[in-house]
Amino acid sequence: MIQQQEVLSKAEDIADQVIRNGKYILPTMARVCLIATFLEDGLRMWFQWNEQREYMDMSWGCGKFLATIFVLVNLIGQLGGCVMVIGRFKVSIACGVLFFIVVLQTFAYSILWDMHFLFRNLALIGALLLVLAESREEGRSLFAGVPTLGENKPKNFLQLAGRILLAFMFITLLRFEIAFMQIFLDIVGSILMLLVCIGYKTKLSALLLVLLLSCLNFYHNAWWTIPDYKPLRDFLKYDFFQTLSVVGGLLMIVSLGPGGVSMDEHKKKY
Fold first, then answer.
1. Closest to 132 measured CA to CA, from 142, 124, 121
2. By the 8 A CB rule, do 196 and 166 touch?
3. Residues 245, 238: Cα–Cα separation, whole Å
4. What angle do CA 197, 114, 31 make, to 5 degrees?
């Protein structure tokens, strides 16, 4: 037990050193990764304008005009939101626009009935909540006239919700295969994700998850190895950039910390 604590303590020291050395670039890295899926999808709307319009018209029978409006809203909303998030300009509005795009696509592409894609979108919403939390000022109480307490800060609840929603991404990565390495990865990843959710050893757990998810993403979603004419390329590309956005959310946790509603914060009181 003592040896395990020493190993854990050493790992935390290494993680703290990495975070300190990268404290000026971590938030920017997190934002770039986080907006990746929105940027890729916005550019897809631009370069596949006709295909996207025809798909929406065929799927919903809504006519060319409404199909064009749908594509245009996605294009402007996503590219504009990405620019605003990276430039830290009106971040709350940008997150609201990107949140609207996620909800719109959830219904437009019938993702609501596909648990795999629904969980991915919930994880994206979690990542957006973390960006929103970073942009919020410390301060006001949830209720007018009530003194501000650490537990009642909206920022803390945004961080809590963001941490929990990010867990949905890892659920979609679980592969129930009878293979030692896969079982090991499922168990380790699930434990780390649980620790992030409850906010225990949060920065270390999130940093390890960043490494794990990044490796799995490049291994399973290597879309650049698939020829252009194969539909699999687009599916892998979609998964790759969505996973990259969740990695951005985890990097935001590494940068921000778990927030007030967490075991790490609770321990500081004793």
1. 124
2. yes
3. 11
4. 45
* Rounded Cα distance, 197 and 155, in Å: 16
As averages over each run of 10 residues, the pLDDT of the chain (270 residues) reads 70 78 86 93 92 89 91 96 92 94 90 84 91 71 42 78 88 78 87 90 90 91 92 90 91 86 72
Radius of gyration of the chain measured on its C-alpha atoms: 20
CB 128 within 8 A of CB 119: no
Q: What is the DSSP letter of 23?
A: T
Both tokens of 68, joined, read 């064009």
Nearest to 130 by CA among 98, 163, 152: 163
pLDDT given for residue 148 in this prediction: 43
* Structure token pair of residue 9: 């303590």
Distance, CA of 88 to CA of 83 (rounded, Å): 8
Q: What is the mean pLDDT of the chain?
A: 85
Q: What is the rounded distance in angstroms from the CA atom of residue 205 to the CA atom of residue 143? A: 33
In terms of Cα–Cα distance, which of 189, 128, 136, 116 is closest to 161? 128
* Residue 137: exposure state from Cβ atoms within 10 A (0-12, 13-18, ≥19): exposed
